[in-house]
Amino acid sequence: MFKTVQWITMMLLFSIPLMAQQVITGTVRNRDTKEPVPAVSVTMKDGPNGDYTNDQGHFRFSTRKQYPITLIFTCIGFESQTMELKSPGAIQVTLTPASVLGKEVVVSASRNIQKKIESPVTIERIGNRDIINSPQPSYYNMLQGLKGVDITTSSLTFTTVTTRGFNTSGNTNFTQIVDGMDNQAPGLNFALGAAIGLTELDVDNLELLSGASSALYGSRGLNGTMVMTGKDPFKYQGLSLQVTQGVNHIQKGKSNDPLGPSPYYDYTLRWAKKINDRFAFKVNLQYIQAKDWIAADTTNTNSLGSRYTDPNYNGVNLYGSKTSVDINPFLEGALAMNPDLGPLITPLLDTSHYVARTGYPEYQYLSSDAKLFKANAELRYKIKPGLEAIGSATYAKGNAVYSNDTRYALTGYYLTQYRLELKAQHWFVRAYTTQENSGRTVIASPTAQLINEAWKPSYDANSGDGWYPQYTGALLEAMAGGQSYESASWTARQFADQGRPAAGSALFNHLKDSIAGMPTSQGGTLFLDKSRLYNAEAQYNFGHLFKFAEIIAGLNYRLYKLDSKGTLFPDNNGPINVAEYSAYAQATKKVIHNKLSLSAAFRYDKNTLFEKPRVTTRTSGVLELAKESFLRFSYQNAYSFPSNIQALQSTPIDYNSFASGGSTRLLNGVYQFDKFQPYTLESVQKYQQSGNADSLVKFQPKDIMPQSVDAFELGWSSLIGGKVLVDVLGYYSTWKNFIGYVNVANTPGTNDVTAFKNHNTYVQYNIAYNGAETVNTYGYAASIGVDLSKNFMAKFNFSSDFLKNRNNSQINNFNTPNYKFNIDFGNDGFGKKQRYSFNTTFRYRPAYFYQIGFASGTVNASAVLDAQISYKLLQAHSKIKLGATNLTNTYYRTGFGSPAIGAMYYVSFAYNVF
């Protein structure tokens, strides 16, 4: 008996590992080209086991299930396939290519997986295949071709995205989320474009929600939300490399471009490996270096005259000339010293005579060295089937320029993000932090003004000398010699500017470095921003527990630790903590034989800077009219807490010091400016054309409040005959407590020349405040995609946005043309073994008015053509791409005061990128 039991026990012990070692292996190839197909999902029917094919098309996994075994193969761009295995052995599978039109799935629209065509709100999607075939060398710039999307390119490495009209550099009302992490810089509250985003080779997909999205994604989602997802190292394996080299600034002198042909470099590497069925990792590196686009708009913001005819000339991209003074007190002083000048001076005193100091052009003042380095590492461990632990770290460092109240050159800034996450089929728990360091930031306008003052003060009360006294003396001498006032003004400027250091000279750089290296709290212009963000969130999907509806709910806690050493925030005594608490829930129910999907979302948010919490909602309905044809309707109430800079008073510079005269500075939020005697401008545009003090009225500040919007949308999506995808929509929004900006001036002029040092100049700065008027926006859009067979695809989209009840007392940043359209035509595989591919995109924008803090004006119409053609080296598993952006080299701008963008021609070599 004992031997029998012993024998049975031994058989059981041997049978267990035998069952555990059942191994399924094979290779998946493209039926047409015979190429390996990576990232194919291989799953077992009625079982938890499976794998993804690697970069060679191989898959391998183990299972305890006995034969026969049914496998299911799925991959975007291919028809799904089912195969039954009756015995062991490596298998060969070929997948048939299929159109992806209308088959795309999205997650961000409802925080649930669904087909894009069935989404309850407008959503645009860019997938990995779109990026590979794009003529844009950067996936981020592909966004400008999407329906309803506006961008502002402030520099080569910094692009700001928005939807439905409110477009400006550094938009705080557009949310960018990467792998679940809010991408905003903690102190500035906006994302620095692709700086801290995914590297080019690690983008699985990005989804862009148009318009309000606060109900699911929280504050600052009024103008849209973009959700980026990186590649899963279990799914996308192997070593990938992409090298792009090109040239920009093709034609020196065109559109005031001071540079000649300059090299562009972009090196990107991705390595991902699945160690075993449980553990995988990935590493990403990217480095970009080029000469930046140059902002060189010389349009006079004070009048229509040129630098030769207008003494008060202030060019858009010239810095230092915001120091503007009425020289009448100096004329009066000269008359008092020499009454014989009466016939010359007395007629001049009938009107004001504003004179600006000479500005420096952006080139050789702000660095044109565009650099960006990004590194990312991620570890994934499957604790058990359906439960995964993820840890990641991301680092980015570079140079960029963005526009606001002036141009800001961020030199050597860096951001880091760290994430820990537990993710299961029905829930996730995530914690992450963002660490910011502003590096060495040069603030263009005030730095240039201080350089002028350091070289030669505008007026020295002790000696009575200075730039303006010298200018006035030379002006009178030239007029006495018979010159007109305009000609004499140019002569006087040349005299007063004698010995002035040229941009880029040793003396200029010394002055710039000393001023830009001194914190704003000590009289310089350096930001010392090392703010941090800490975020913890959790979400649970109750869909498997409740049959009557699919319900998701989540919690979020966020802490801003603002640390600028008094240079951005009033935090001289230590970091300021600002916390946000959030809870949200969404219920979705299908009725009428599953033809109508109804959804309602609710969100509660509390910010510690504001007494009252915010409650927002979203309701939507999607009706299936016919097969692959859906009508959608949504109402969204969205909100935005003011940004931290808007909500907290910035530490002011000594505004009684002329050295800071004329600078523009963000002083917002809980206003305590009575001692500064702020004056608002009756007409912002009028002030930009004239420095006349008569246009100033007393500014009455109030505490800033959150803004909100009620948005309605009606849309229709349909896939017709499997070949034509159509999407049309219309929207109408009502904004309350709309946050805009106003230009204000401090200390209106005086005729007392002895008090010139403290008066008789405008200290101009921007204040954010809530407009009393209700603001409305509305628009419509349409897109059509056509599968022309044999891998040819054509796309067209059109969109239109309008602002109603514009508040002319505010700078509202509604910077978009009334209409715009994009055309895309390409083929991702033709010729023998589909070695060739190409793509062309065309974007048209009519002229439109653009408002920004330091200047406003017309952005000229643009018609931009991008193109690329590629060739596959099948045996080397590589691809060569020859491409061009702005092929015709017709310079254009995406924002007033932003750089002019010319052509860039490039060649790219990609290994293992398909």
From TrEMBL:
Membrane topology annotation: Multi-pass membrane protein
Gene Ontology CC entries for this record: cell outer membrane
Family: Belongs to the TonB-dependent receptor family.
Name of the protein in its database record: TonB-dependent receptor-like protein
All residue ranges annotated as the TonB-dependent receptor plug domain in the record: 116-225
Gene Ontology molecular function terms on file: siderophore uptake transmembrane transporter activity
InterPro entries: Beta-barrel_TonB_sf (IPR036942), CarboxyPept-like_regulatory (IPR008969), Plug_dom (IPR012910), Plug_dom_sf (IPR037066), TonB-dep_rcpt-like (IPR039426)
Compartments, as annotated in UniProt: Cell outer membrane
Keywords: Cell outer membrane, Membrane, Receptor, Signal, Transmembrane, Transmembrane beta strand, Transport
SUPFAM superfamilies xrefs: Carboxypeptidase regulatory domain-like, Porins
GO terms under biological process: siderophore transmembrane transport
Leader peptide range in chain numbering: 1-20
Pfam families cross-referenced by the UniProt entry: CarbopepD_reg_2 (PF13715), Plug (PF07715)
Keyword Chloroplast included in the entry's annotation: no
